[in-house]
Design brief:
By secondary structure, this protein is an alpha+beta fold. Helices cover 31% and strands 29% of the residues. It is globular, with a radius of gyration of 21 Å.
Length: 321
Amino acid sequence: MSDHAFAVLRLLSAGGFQSGEGMAQQLSCSRTLVWQAVHAIEQDFGLTVFSVRGRGYQLAQPFDWLDVAQIRAGLSDAAGDSLTLALVERTDSTNTQLMTRAAAGAPQGLLLAAEAQSAGRGRLGRRWQMKLGAGLTFSLLWRFERGLAALAGLSLAVGVAMVRALRKLGAPVMLKWPNDVLLDGKKLAGTLIELSGDAQGPAAVVIGIGLNVADPGEVDQPVACLADAGLQLSRNTVLAVLLNELQQVLVEFERGGFAVLRDEWSSYAAHHQAPVRLSFSHHAPVDGVALGVDDSGALRVQTPSGEQLFHVGEVSLRPRP
């Protein structure tokens, strides 16, 4: 999408009708460029723009843009002191960008949030899709002195932070091992953890999060959004609350690992003591009953051959009838 299209979209997202001539004057461009920008908004992002002769253009569903000042206003003192916020209109992947910056020595606490991603991804290489303005896609860089092996369970710890934040906002969410946040059994949010460093430390971790605030549009799996829980919230408010809890949980994890968060995670588990099926990339699925997790975040499952542990990797969990 062109820079003109984003500029026109910012004018339209305020709501109400905007005349093509007026927008052209504000942007110092031709009305033809405005028309082309509106066409790009509809084609590239699937947003509906009403066009009425004599009145101009109106975005069918206005939204608020991410804003550093508004986000910072909602941060706790600890989070405000720990985090550096960076916002971009578009990128390939916030995780990819932060991994590159981490390798170049970027500081702990750097947050990168994007309005749009062209190559957003989730766990197991799945694509993360979201309509512009409908949710949050962001990544956070955190550095640990401990080695990679000591970071087992970090994705589950992040899930604890997500639940704390979303329940504070009024969403009755649950967790699905290892990294999904569910609302009414449907995926509301997911995380992608990427690590670099040495086995003995130090290590750099990029925590990527995607969360649906409003209807994300057509996606390839059952999903939920905060609006489904009756919550009409500014994305800036939601992001600030998430960052407050993330900062706190990362401090807790750094001090005591996942073990100090294990019981809390289990209290949020959607499939605790329930029949589940584990699917793998290269061998047959395993059926059993989910018993919870151990101190490393591995899933404990009672199978016909006895209790087994399953670690985060090429495995997916689904409820079994």
